[in-house]
Amino acid sequence: MSNSFTSAVFETETMDVPGGTETILRGGRHLFPLLPEAFGGVRRIGVIGWGPQARAQSRNLRDSLAGTGIRVSVGLRPGSASAADARAHGFTEQDGTLGDWLDVVAESDLVILLIADAALAAHHEEIFAALRPGATIGLSHGFLLGHLRATGGTFPDGHGVIAVCPKGMGDSVRRLYEQGAEVNGAGINSSFAVHADPDGRAVDRALAWSVALGSPYTFQTSLEREYMSDIVGERAILLGAVHGLVEALYGHYRLEGDDPVTAYERSCENITGPIARTISADGLRAVRERLDPDGRDTFDRAYHAAYGPARDLVAEIYDEVADGTELRSVILAERRLASRPMSGIGGSPMWAAGDAVRARRGERTLPVDPFTAGMFVATMMAQVDEFAERGHPWSEIVNESVIEAVDSLLPYMHARDVAYMVDNCSRTARLGARRWGPRFQAAYEQLAFPAKPAGQEVNGFTDHPVHEALAAAARLRPSVDIHVA
């Protein structure tokens, strides 16, 4: 796939990446005056749903388009429990910005579908039938494409199909957008994809949508690559592998004799705190480079031990997403969970120590634990390498494997904890984390921890091309840190 695109409205840039270049769009509020032209005849935008992404995106779009004459409306199913919250955020029936989902679909020029994946799989035919002629379909996840391919369905002819996919949670998309009022460019990076473009305006519409969300940096992918990287990432380094790793490390440190609070600090607190902050600010290499010689030796041993088992699991996840197994499991679960809600994962012994750990923050600076760091960085690099081997562009690799983790999800987990995140994320992500987290935990406990590799420097890590790609992306990073209320 070519990672070069052109815009008739926005001035794009070329970013150097390993082996070539990629075209990207740098965002910012100074671009807001260009949005009406870029949306290309779109006068009504309908956001369908009110989950975290819909709540954030509808508000960001409304605020960015204020005074332009482009109206943003929210569509909900009859009797939706979310209607009261939508009204509380300024969307009302009285002014035509809140209504029945199919009515909003029928009156919108751009229909952004942000209902749950399984619900979209179940109701997309109703939505497609309600579309006005020529309306553009907007997605923030490629799950529907995977479902259509698995079931022999297609998107309707005559309609543009675009995607803008923020690389962070909905809450982050809104909070950093609000920070952007004071620091131009603050926001969550997004990928965009054009799947169908009957009128030739799809690229600029997608870019306008991304700019209006506050994305500081927008890069191109395809709808297929997006859902592959997104669903795999949720099950691996973004959530599932983190869950499995912190559980495994906590048990490992307890067996070594640590008390519960110390074991929690060396496992969960270390990953979500100093390790994530170091990667976010200074890159992956800095985690290892800032350790003393003994620490580097421990890091290297842990890295060697964890990389192989983690890479095997990431490859297995990728294959199961590619052949539709993971997508089918989400749809099957939706039927099952209608009468049997998912139980939480926060009841294991380690989570009881979280409150005590958070209460003593500020008493000292927690150092990076070299063993934990080696395990975590190896797992992150396993996903990087799998995505690179499968042909994903570098912007997508570093955003889905590194930036989204350290700039969005891990700070949120630091404020709450990993168990809270697993129990309160989207159903697709939650199901994936619950299925694959224990697989990662078992791999670390059964394969990585017993390994006694030689303590040589980790092969290929220091000069890995990911460092070049991550440094290029970091130059586009706004000068703000994520704020978690």
Automatic annotation (TrEMBL):
Keyword hit for Metal-binding: yes
Classification via SUPFAM superfamilies: 6-phosphogluconate dehydrogenase C-terminal domain-like, NAD(P)-binding Rossmann-fold domains
Presence of the UniProt keyword rRNA-binding in the record: no
InterPro entries from the UniProt entry: 6-PGluconate_DH-like_C_sf, 6PGD_dom2, KARI, KARI_C, KARI_N, NAD(P)-bd_dom_sf
Superkingdom classification of source: Bacteria
Cofactor: Mg(2+)
Binding locations of Mg(2+) 1: D230, E234
Pathway as given in its UniProt record: Amino-acid biosynthesis; L-valine biosynthesis; L-valine from pyruvate: step 2/4; Amino-acid biosynthesis; L-isoleucine biosynthesis; L-isoleucine from 2-oxobutanoate: step 2/4
Location of the KARI N-terminal Rossmann domain: 25-221
Residue stretches making up the KARI C-terminal knotted domain: 222-364
PANTHER family: KETOL-ACID REDUCTOISOMERASE, MITOCHONDRIAL
Protein name (database record): Acetohydroxy-acid isomeroreductase
Classification of source organism: Bacteria, Bacillati, Actinomycetota, Actinomycetes, Streptosporangiales
